[in-house]
Amino acid sequence: MTRRMTLSFSVRDSKTCTTQVMTWTRISRIRLQKDHFVSLTLAPLKYLPFYLLLKFFSRDNDSEEDEDMTIKPDDSIIVCASNDDDVSHLEIWILEVLSDGTVNMYVHHEIIIPAFPLCTAWLDCPIKSGEGKGNFIAVGSMELAIEIWDLDVLDEVQPAAVLGGIADIKKKGKKKTIKYKKDSHSDSVLGLAWNKEYRNMLASASADQSVKVWDVNTSSCTVTMNDHTDKVQAVAWNPFASQILLSGSFDHTVCLKDVRYPSHGGYKFPVSADVESLAWDPHSEHSFVVSLENGTVTSFDIRLASSDPTSATKPCFTIHAHDKAVSSMSFNPLVPNLLATGSTDKMVKLWDLSNNQPSCIATRNTKAGAVFSVSFSDDCPFFLAIGGSKGKLQLWDISSEDAVLNKYGKYAAQKRPPKS
Description:
- By secondary structure, the chain is mostly beta strands.
- It contains two helices and 31 strands.
- Keywords: Phosphoprotein, Repeat, WD repeat.
- InterPro entries: PWP1 (IPR044285), TonB_box_CS (IPR010916), WD40/YVTN_repeat-like_dom_sf (IPR015943), WD40_PAC1 (IPR020472), WD40_repeat_CS (IPR019775), WD40_repeat_dom_sf (IPR036322), WD40_rpt (IPR001680).
């Protein structure tokens, strides 16, 4: 069995890499093959544009060049971490819906990054100041360090902050001694999650089997948790209880922890295969889903969790969603019980999870190749961003599906919900 090396969307072998999608609201990721998009992230318009939010670039200069560089309030932003010919970079895409309904996408600017990216997470917390809002993206890689890049700066050459990494390498004969920075991960960073309530807090998952929580204002690690016995693939904060963190591992468990009490063993949810991704239900504070390497998706209610390691928590449901690994999932931010899944079987599916009786309502081969990431937009919730092994970002307007319109027509009427 091949192992992925990361992510939010991770890499399964040396020929694949993670891709995350940064688009409309929250962070999402997409895993793609080498020489293709590595990672995508979406950011919400209400925070600026979108997941990996690029702040709106507004300029007073009336030149044509400045007009092309200006991000309009109705634009959405998609950030793709990619690797082409061994050069890694972040591509900041603009998505605009024209007056006739036509969707136009183009690359606004790029940022060259020094290491092969495996996962990303958008931050709106100003690095080192803690006041106001910023527009940053955290990037995890095989280089152990987590780099945080300012998306509002064109031609950026250095990260705004670096969390962990290698401090020094000494060679004596054939022996090599590596000295890590304080509290650094000692292996690849496979997953990242930003805390929307405690905005300076960033969680990371690593192949070194640990989960860490970082304070981006001080670039320091505040909590290290070692609750898994194999690589940790994904982390996710509970959107209703921001101190609660999920982590999913190749040890076939999901761990639920209150990070205020890191020494507590937490609650374990056993699963049948390697964890691919995690997602909290944004419409239910007690529910989350986990997708697995064997093609299944399982839902749990955290109220049923037991701290007794001999007592396995019973899932609410398990579905064989795809023929291959379910690499990514995304809950619709507007429509309750609507879940999108993407798989290395090249298919993207939409599921109605009502009453814990899942049913597939739409299936599409988006021509993305093996799908590594899917993500709904918070601002345009009927747009689904998709990334895959063909290295081409795809966009699916799910309101074009009759089954979706028949079931969710009342929601489709408000494609862009009012801003709070």
